[in-house]
Amino acid sequence: MKRPALCSRRHFLHANGFGIGTLALASLLERDGLLAAPVKPELFGQARYDLTPKQPHFNGQAKAMISLFMMGGPSQMDLFDPKPMLTKYHGQKFPGEIKYDNLAQASSKCFGSPWKFAKHGECGMEISELLPNLAKVVDEITLIRSMTSGVNNHAQGLYAMNAGRVTAGRPALGSWLTYGLGSETDELPAYMVLAHPSGLPTFSGEHFTNGWLPALYQGTLVRATEPRILNLDPPPSLAGERQARQLDLLNELNEAHLTLHPGELDLQARIASYELAAKMQTAAKEALDISDEPQHIKTLYGVDNPITKDYATRCIIARRLVERGVRHVQVLNSGQSWDQHSSLITSLPKNCEATDQPSAALIIDLKQRGLLDTTVVHWGGEMGRLPVLQNDAGREKWGRDHNTYGFSMWLAGGGFKKGYVHGETDEFGHKAVIDEVKHYDYHATLLKTFGLDHTKLTYKRNGLAASLTDNQGAKVVDQLLA
Amino acid sequence: MSLIVPTRLWGWIPVFCATTALATVDFVHDVQPILKEHCYRCHGPQKQEAALRLDHKPSALKGSDNGPVIVPGKSAESKIVHALRGSNPKLQMPRKADPLPPAQIDLIERWINEGAQWPDSASAKTESKIDHWAFKPPVKPPVPSVADLSITDPAWKKSRNPIDAFIASRLAKEGLQPSPPAPPEKLARRLFLDLIGLPPTPTDLATFKEAPLLTKRLLASPQYGERWGRLWLDSARYADSNGYEKDPMRFIWFYRDWVIKAFNDDLPYDQFIIDQLAGDELPNATQDQIVATGFLRNSMINEEGGVDPEQFRMEAMFDRMDTIGKSILGLTIGCTQCHNHKYDPISQEEYYRMFAFLNNDNEPWRVVYTTPEQAQRAQILKSIEALETQLKRDHPDWQQRFAAWQAAITKNRPEWTTLRFEDDPSGGEKALRQPDGSILAQGYAPTRSEVKFQVKLDAPTVIAAIRLELMNDPNLPAYGPGRSQKGTAALTELNVEMKIDGKMTKLKFASATADFGEPENSPLAPFAKDKEAAKDKRVTGPIQYAIDGKDETAWGIDAGPGRRNSPRNAVFVLEKPITVKPEDGLTIGLSMKHGGWNSDDLQTMNLGRYRISATATPDAKADPLYGAAGNAFAVFRTTVPEWKDTNAAIEKLWAQHPEGATTLVLDSRDQPRMTMTLKRGDFTKPGDLVQLGVPAMLNPLPKNADGSRLTFARWITDRKSPTTARAFVNRVWQAYFGTGLIDTPEDLGTQGSAPSHPELLDWLACDFMDHGWSVKHLHELIVTSLTYQQSSTVTPALLERDPYNRLLARGPRFRVEGEVVRDIQLAVSGLLNPTLGGRPVMPPAPAYLFEKPASYAPFPWHVETDSNQYRRAVYTFRRRSTPYPFLATFDVPNGETACVRRSKSNTPLQALMTLNETISIEAAKALAQRMQKEGGTTPETQIAYGFELCTGRKPSPKELATLSALMGRQAARKEQLDAPTIVARVLLNLDETVTKE
Lengths: 482, 997
Hints:
The structure holds two protein chains of two kinds.
Chain A (H helix, E strand, L loop, with lengths): L4 H11 L10 H6 L32 E6 L6 H4 L4 H5 L17 E5 L6 E4 L4 E4 L3 H5 L4 E8 L5 H10 L9 H9 L9 E4 L25 E3 L17 H21 L4 H24 L6 H7 L7 H15 L4 E5 L11 H25 L6 E6 L3 E2 L2 E3 L11 E2 L3 E6 L7 E3 L1 E2 L6 E3 L2 E2 H11 L8 E4 L2 E4 L15
Parallel strand pairs in A: 1-8, 1-9, 5-14, 5-17, 6-7, 6-8
Antiparallel strand pairs in A: 2-11, 3-4, 5-13, 9-13, 10-12, 15-16, 18-19
Chain B lengths: L1 E6 L3 E6 L10 H12 L1 H4 L13 H6 L16 H7 L16 H12 L40 H5 L3 H12 L10 H12 L6 H6 L3 H10 L1 H14 L17 H12 L4 H10 L8 H6 L1 H4 L11 H21 L18 H11 L2 E2 L2 E4 L2 H24 L3 H15 L4 E2 L1 E2 L8 E4 L5 E4 L6 E8 L4 E11 L18 E2 L1 E8 L2 E4 L2 E6 L7 E2 L15 E3 L11 E4 L11 E13 L6 E6 L16 E7 L16 H6 L6 H12 L5 E4 L2 E2 L7 E3 L7 E4 L19 H8 L7 H14 L20 H13 L4 H9 L2 H4 L6 H6 L12 E2 L2 H12 L55 H5 L18 H9 L1 H17 L4 H13 L5 H17 L5 H10 L6 E2 L1
Parallel strand pairs in B: 16-17
Antiparallel strand pairs in B: 1-2, 3-22, 4-21, 5-20, 6-9, 7-8, 8-20, 9-19, 10-18, 10-20, 11-17, 12-13, 12-19, 14-18, 15-16, 23-24, 25-26
């Protein structure tokens, strides 16, 4: 009888006295090709899901992604998309039609940006004075000024930007990436999510849900404060060496049981899951602890400044996770803090102060480590804002309402162009008029830079091949890619 | 005019002529090939862009989302011609290819002008898919004979269970042999986990003799309903919160308990479905049957400020259709809400024809009572009636006195004019005007609000008093009249203002009367209290509280359980009658400031449905009979001073009336709604009116069928329904074996998988119906089969041959569901609180999950302080936006949509959960204590006992030695550490503990 390779190697390792810390994982063995997936007869097709690295459809440049998600709808005409015409018409009636979300506070008066724009970098990209640090790295980024998703609500905007469609319940981008590409680490979850100290953004779990993909692909939520992972640590009385012994024992018993059930894949997967859990107890702790980062790195990100401390810390953690092979990291804000319906003039600068330096530092740091070429950094929210005033009750109350007909976001690294601006909105910044990029076009392009064909990365559901772009007619925007 | 005539030989030749009187264009020869070449790719059998299909005559002539595209005889009005010509370059067709040669377009144009003749024979037949096996009612196939099969095990040859015959016959065909039976203790544990979702105790194992006996015992245990009810609750998308952004809690756990009870009572499955779809429409419907309609109410509800209630009513309707499709029919009909089904022969129209059955309901919260409460309530009502009868008997003149009293009331009734209002005063809350002049408050309910109505007058009007009526409505909690979770309300102040000498001036009241008011200084209900309840000085009381100018006091209408949902009226008499001119800006303000602090929870005390009217009659009083509802005597007797004692006795009885609970149910509307198709499923784009109906591929409706849900329910459970029984037996099979006989339980249609054992599926479906749709019969049949009882140990050869065990040459083996993982922890540790039913419980969970902004609104997750922490997982509170972490990590669905097949993951987060989560640790400690207390006196016997509790078998000598060594090592180290707890934690995390083998 042919003995499955897994068992023999496992038992070899075990017999040689390796403890759990060095015992190879089933997933590693699978990666070595030692545990071949069983040949499945056509009739009985039912896929097995795991996190071993997968071959992309073609060679892609990107290997990992960090999404700096800005829930609420950052105001594009105050940050990324200068509109002199809007300034000229400031206080006058907007010469066109506007779709408002909040009619009660709606006004049709133009609201010229109170902030100045200037050209930066060799590319001459125009960026607002609110983002002085981003201004220094514009030669690394692709700025899209013509994003659209079409539904003026936070929920639908989020679903569109994060999960491909305006409907709820679909898998998040990170789930698709890990489903398509697996993981490069066996010590950490493939998809990790870094929460803000004040809590999750609105629609909490939907930012990193696996939707109807297997739960294996859900994002692992990392809290902003210790304990960053729930239940990672056993109670003190069960911790440390005692736990190692327990896990060794557990492993021994499970392994012994496996010999009675040779080839039982679930049992193998469970053994592997305890091993990953055990590894996470040290690996996740190590990865999530930035105390050993050198001072110049901390300074670069702004860890020592109370205003930037949290975001800087999480950006460094994101980088550390990617360095350690995590496929997708989301750095989230809290609530919908970019939702400036009122008091934009005072609150938008605060958002920028907290995030600008760390975001720019992430680009610099990834680049100096040679990781930027393979890591996509994304900065953006679920929508943008209107060119007209909301809450016309005195300058300090001025705000802007939602706008999904034309907004901005930027991408860096991982195969995206450097120093490039894509698309335009109209003269007032209301609607995308040139080179519109729909949310699904962005997704198709993003998948392409990972070597994935958005029409082929599918999951069978209700008898249909469901995908991130889901038959919406998505087109890869090749101009975005280098 | 330039025309092109086709010739068979030369292709296309342009011809110039002055008239259209040419040879007729032939659709089949001339037009169809053009459509086929250029249009079908997007508008044909595979795709119907813009819902346009050009290969199927009726669809093509019906047109697209944007209306007809072919108007016979009128090419100028036919959009297809404009699209092909590119009259609007943005809309030119074909979209992704070169324009058609003008000659071809001309031809289509001519064909249309000639009347668009299209022979039926040249239309695609969408009906052809009706031939699919699952659209024909199942017919019981003969059971194959096992005698001649190459199966060697004599037990299989002797088996009388038809399941074995079907399985053996397939195995023989594949050249495989079944596995030997599982060892008795494995089989016993499998039966326990499968039938009641709990592991056996060592005593259970010791007394286990034979499977049939144990099966009967387990099926009779109330834990059976908890286990199998939970699986149905997945497909019913049951949850204890509304979903969407605010996700407040809802009360629908009576439905959950009904499901559990239905399984325990072995309610026939057809009746089970009928009750859920139309229990309220059954003759003399019982409370249980009404509660069952909560099945349809499990849809999510969106109460965001500013949402259109109709939009989300439609979302809920689509969800109900999707649920009926997946859960009952085993068909994916959800996609036909927007367009014709791409694969199965259900048209969009047919979808809306079914939809029409479900579109005629109110969606109330109903007050319900548990069985003991029902008995108590009946007793109280009987006693009250007896006391009233006694009064009448003791006072023979009661009738005259009663009549005189009534006559006086009727005579003094002033004439009231309903006031009309200028504008909608609603903030987030919607004030919907009703035909009778009343206002129905719906949508987001602020907990502190002040609505102001501008009164619309046509002429100067004398007003002496204002009347406020509080009315019932099926759209209010417990039918109202208020919006609080009990249907009550509180009016903090009634403010009437108008311009006097050009200045808005508050009018003063001389008096106020009402047919009911709470006693002075009544405390607020706990749900309406401020965050710091102790500092909250607000009270409710009599009607005078509404005109005392104080924000702390309000008129309260809570007459206690059994009576609190009566309509009420109050009359406010002005200090002096006043003549109001239209331009005086008369405003009536309702100040409602007696709600709680969290407007995203159920803390409102707002009025629900109300009407405001005025009279010129001085000294008007509230009508004491306003809410008497046919029992005027009950009001009358309270006005008779000498009946004081009896009245007091009756009040005492009312005080004992059970509180009850509310649950979401359906309730037919008097006026049915019109059902229209919705273009692309958009509620703002209604299309044609549809008639009631069902998809032609399924069984027909009976003749003269009415539009009731009951008719629909009976149709869906008709024996001729091709998929209803099949879908259910398949899911039961899936629960036992991990995969159904069809591995796409949500889709038996043409895109679903082929069944592995089609004859067995049909046999089971027919046998199920033959046995009165008895679910317990189905269970017995399955678990007493040799197929089920096989050992699950797999050989590598068999694994390679049949990795997913579809042929069933071995028994099932897989990780148990999330609820069972939790229940095993609780059961083996002895922590389990086995109480049945009741409100959902809140076991420990990280508090930050329920606070802003992780939760959009703060959510009151009050961790249980007693053994309610340790209830079975079926009772864990299910909040859709914050699924309970332990369960969610083990793939328990969150109830957003119907789920008939759970995913099964094995992740490190699960390992971290069972190692370190609060209750997991408590279970390890409790198991350690139990081992020491019940497991004999030596470490070995204690370990063996714990091992058997967890895995259902005794440890092997080697396992025992390994564990004992650990315990010994720990003890020898004399650390501060509890060696048995360490062992217990290992035992709880064994693969075998959480696996059904």
